[in-house]
Write a structure and sequence with these properties.
globular; single chain; mainly alpha; 18 helices; 4 strands
């Protein structure tokens, strides 16, 4: 025993091969849904990772020796003192081995998913009717997330009733709603509360700003609504809302409500264009394209210009865009200073389930469409799509919150002392 305490300790050797194997598995699964080339690359990485991992488990290769600390620096042994711990018994105050005491039942998430699933298609079907595409157009687009061949169909075919696509859309919608409903039932009660200013300022107000901007673009210059990439536009709004709300909360003691609101609006306005510029660079439109689109809200003639003109630098357009952006940023900052202190807190589950989770689901759907069927990203009308997600999130959250709590009995039977 004494010789063991003086010698080095045998420890597992650090290795990165499990992460390589996990990366290969992820690529292989992605290749199943995309192309055989990605599947082949993933298989090669997976086999390499497993081979390297197994090679390090061979005798003499998977361990290393760590020197022990000096005897004077080692912790002192703990002397046992039997008979000093009192065992908990049933009926004794404090006897509780399961927390929390009350939880929402799993069925609440299922019912929330069903209710949200019934309300969720309403905006999509309404948009299909208002746009002249008909009610079957959004249904067929939903089926295209899984069923192949959508990119080969014309718009006229997508507007017609397709029995196979209808069955596929119903199956996809039902599965997604039930899975998300279960996630709501399990996760929402465990999430922390969101401060009122953050919930209203960084989550709900950007939604209102997006809706107002969409309506203004349709009224002032309808071409803008088609030139803007709405998922990235909405990301910009939430970036502004989060930054402005954080600045407002941190600066209101020193600057007052009005000063903190103006400061938050300015700082949020400086950060807000970053997603728009990133999207423009990724799509090779150049950094001036978003600024020119913004200037088109008041400058006429945008619909007659080619993309090359919108991607070029125009000094007068840039000045107009800066004035519009600064005015809106400061105006919303002032609105924050007046409105946020007077708003009541949003319940934590409602803030997470009705606002945050729809954003995550929207971004996941957008990325999934880009991998499975990129044509869907062009056909889907994103403002109405995102509105559908928020409708589902709010409905499912309300059902979960309003469900009756069930008591969780203590674990074990306890032993008397």
């Amino acid at each position: 025993m004494a010789s063991e305490e003086q010698g080095p300790i045998e420890m597992p050797r650090p290795t990165a091969w499990p992460m390589v194997a996990a990366l290969g598995l992820a690529f292989a699964l992605a290749g199943v849904a995309t192309s055989y080339a990605i599947l082949l690359v993933g298989a090669v990485i997976l086999v390499t990772g497993i081979g390297g991992w197994v090679s390090q488990l061979l005798p003499g290769r998977g361990h290393t020796h760590e020197e022990r600390a000096e005897p004077s620096q080692r912790p002192r042994p703990v002397a046992p003192r039997p008979g000093t711990v009192q065992h908990l018994a049933a009926g004794v105050p404090g006897y509780r081995l399961r927390l929390p005491v009350e939880v929402h039942p799993t069925s609440a998430g299922v019912w929330g998913g069903l209710v949200g699933g019934l309300l969720m298609p309403i905006p999509a079907l309404l948009w299909g009717v208002l746009s002249g595409h008909g009610i079957w157009y959004p249904v067929n687009l939903l089926a295209g997330m899984v069923l192949p061949g959508l990119e080969q169909m014309t718009v006229a075919q997508l507007e017609q009733f397709q029995p196979g696509l209808l069955v596929g859309a119903i199956a996809i919608h039902a599965v997604f709603c039930l899975v998300l409903g279960l996630c709501y039932g399990v996760l929402l009660p465990t999430l922390p509360d969101v401060p009122a200013a953050v919930a209203w300022g960084s989550l709900l107000m950007p939604v209102l700003w997006t809706a107002l901007s969409f309506g203004a673009m349709r009224f002032v210059n309808p071409v803008l609504a088609y030139g803007v990439a709405w998922p990235w536009f909405i990301v910009s709004q939430f970036v502004y809302g989060a930054v402005s709300a954080a600045v407002f909360l941190g600066a209101r003691r020193r600057w007052g409500d009005v000063g903190a609101g103006v400061l938050g609006g300015l700082i949020g306005g400086l950060v807000m264009p970053a997603p728009a510029f990133l999207w423009s660079l990724m799509t090779r439109h150049g950094i001036w394209y978003p600024a020119n689109l913004l200037a088109g809200m008041v400058k006429p003639g945008l619909d007659d210009l080619p993309d090359e003109a919108l991607e070029a630098f125009h000094a007068d357009w840039l000045a107009i865009a800066i004035v519009i952006h600064a005015t809106l940023s400061i105006s919303f900052g002032l609105a924050y200073s007046v409105v946020l202190p007077r708003l009541r807190p949003i319940p934590g589950p409602m803030a997470w389930g009705g606002l945050v989770m729809p954003l995550l689901w929207t971004s996941t759907s957008y990325g999934l469409m880009g991998v499975v069927n990129p044509v869907l990203q062009e056909y889907v009308h994103w403002p109405w799509f995102i509105f559908s997600q928020f409708l589902f999130g709010i409905a499912a959250s309300v059902v979960v919150i309003c469900s009756a709590m069930i008591h969780v009995p203590p674990a074990g039977t306890g032993t008397s002392t």
